[in-house]
Each structure stands twice: as structure tokens, then as C-alpha cells.
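Quick note —
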Amino acid sequence: MASPLDELLSAPDWGWDEPGGPPRAPGVYAWAGDVVPSGLPEEGLWQRDGYSLLYVGIAPRATGGPGRDPLRTSLAPRIAYHFEGSADASALRTALGVVLAKPLGLTLWRHADGHRYTWGDGEAALSRWMQAHMRVRWLRHSRPWEVADMAFRNLTLPLNLRAQEPSPFQIELGQRKAMMQTLALPELGARPAAGDDGPARVD
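Predicted structure written out below.
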């Protein structure tokens, strides 16, 4: 019998400009790229049809509860936000932006609240890159964090900076992110919040 992780990896993938899309349901999702950005380790990456798996996320978190921002609870808005949102609510966009900062000319900005960060005008360039080079697959699951834990234990996922046992590359990338946050320029004005308490941090 196939494990939930096997089901996720064998699921069909989806690109941003294609019909259909993820459901409004809880689950786990996996992002793969047809290009492995320079600097990312390629050894050990799971691959299929020319795409290399780079990141796994969930909706909702294990700590989610009733009344939380809808961004936390469903595959559809979570995946859409990764594709066209902002780094202030996407761990994937944050990590990928650090890797692509030089080739895309990205600059990190600090939100007026002092706690969130964004690529500012560079978010559009990051969205275009993701929409051109990345595809996502998903699996409906009532306890998606359990599937994600299986992925962290069995797969190489360089953009998951919160992995249970981070690799040397993930540690180094986390340090680069922290340095960029320290040097981030102050953003003028507050960006619209995606909920009463601001955008939900997505995994």
C-alpha cells in the first residue's frame, strides 16, 4: 500500500497558467522547478519529468484552529499566495528570493511593523520566475503535517529552512536570510494585511 508521501510524489503536477488548480481543502503540497537556481545543491533531489523537488508545505498548520485567517486553512489560497503573493507571508518566496536575489536584482524591505519582510517591487519579478519555472502537486489530507514530516525525513528539500534536521546548505541559507533581514531597507507605509492580525506566515 502506497504511503501518503508516495501518493503526493505520484500526484499530477500543475502550472500557474493551466486550467484547474488546487482544491479548497486541507492538504500537503510539493514544489518542483525545471531550473535549479545557481547555488542550490542538486545532489539527492527527487526528480520527475525534468523537474526537481525543492519545497514541501502544508495547509493548515498543525497549530491551526477555528477562526484563523483563510490563508492558513486551504490548499487553493495557500498555493495561489506562493505563486503571486509576497515574501511577508510565504516562507517559500522568502527562501527562493534569497537564492535569486542577485540574478533577479531583488532587494529585501522591512515592513513598517518591523516584523515582516517583502521583496517590494521585486515581488513581481519573483512571481514571473516562479510561474515560468515551477510546478506544484498536492495531496488532500486531514493531517498534512504528518506527510510533511515524512517528506522532511526522506527527501532533500533545500528551500525548507524549517526542516527537522537542516542540512549545511539550509543552515547557510538561513544565515543569508537573517543577514538580509538585518540589512533590509525600511518600507514606507504599511502593506495591506491578509487578516486582522496581518498575513499568516505560510509553510
